[in-house]
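ugh ok fine here u go
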Amino acid sequence: LLHMFLQAIIQGVDGVWGKFTDDWLLEKAGDATVVVERRTDGHGAYGQGLKAPMQLKQLVKELQQGNTGLYMSTQEVGVGRDEHPLLYGAPLVQLEGQFPLLQPLMGHMVPQSVNMWMGCAPEGSSTGLHHDFHDNLYILLRGCKRFRLYPPSAAPDMYVHGKLQRIYPNGRIVYEGQGDVQPDGSDKHDVQLWQARRSADEAAAAASTDPSLAQQADDALEGQLELMLQGGGDGFDVDAIGLADDYVDSDEDAFADDPGDDDEASDDQQQRAGKRKGPADTKQLRQQRKKKQKHGKAGPAAASTAGSVAGPTSVEPPPPSFSQVDLSLPEAVLRRQFPRFPGVAAAQEVLLQAGQMLYLPAGWFHEVTSFGGAGRDGGHLAINYWYHPPDNLDSSKAGFKSPYSSPYYPTIWAQRQPWLQQDTQRWWRLKQQQQQQQSGAGAGA
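structure:
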């Protein structure tokens, strides 16, 4: 299935997820500040860019009391020492070591992010129709979720906000303005620069033991510098504490891969802050950030409709991967407003129950309707793993062992595993310090 790029329901989940009760989450991560999506009424869809910060313990309390206007989805993540995004943000940072970082079922695929999704919707709440930029393993721990699915080939008829550039055979969809994106989601220039760095390092190491190779080392270094200059100022901003601004994927995504891998789209010390040529997924994020700054904050009316939200509500523009089609509209209205849209009846419908997993390849459009009532350990709760989409179409065992045609992502993943948790905790400590400083400044104002 991983090489046929088809969705699949998988029965059973790892027993480790059984401890993810409300009480356990509050004990381990109750003070964590998370960003929640909001909807202005009990029947609207999420994925509209309306978000606000609040502590996890407050969110859990609101959901237990039946607040259906809040939904925790993708969170901000930091950037590692290799200048690639870390895997998860709050509250999973506080739960580090309590859940598996890798899923054996996914073989040699390289993870892009891990996320937690939580909400309350006795009558159902929708994410809106969209696609992700990464392969998705979705693990449902509570509640029930209905997925309406359309294949990547239907993208020209989905009325997405972005302008389609191409659809790769593995389902990876690329929009104009996202750069030279490869089938595995990497940026062609990034890969070339990475290869040049490797060559320069290898040549320098060889020249250190054999002076006759010095000229080759100089040539390799010059090639690397030329590629760096070609990148110019194109990169993404890194702030003083290592945050990849707005890095979200949209899988119910908000937008982190280009973010956007569903939606959702996403350094270190201030001395290292600056511009960097980043993954293809970050190009759209830069555009999103500019638009966000232009649109500014939502007004008081918007901030007051979802109950006791701790922080100010912000409004973000829709990611390019989101469809303008509202599946709740009558079929006649859909045909009139979106004549090319294949219709609700054309969707493949999947009903996912607690204790099941769904594998959904990159590019598959999906509208997710979540169900789960109020009360302790109620609502709906899920964990998802996004993976860089494999582009090796070989369905044999050899293809399963080497899912990517390039060593780019597998090599980066192997190199970052020894320090990944250390960098994640360091980023989180710095983020907390910044939040405390901002709170202190606000109190003194």
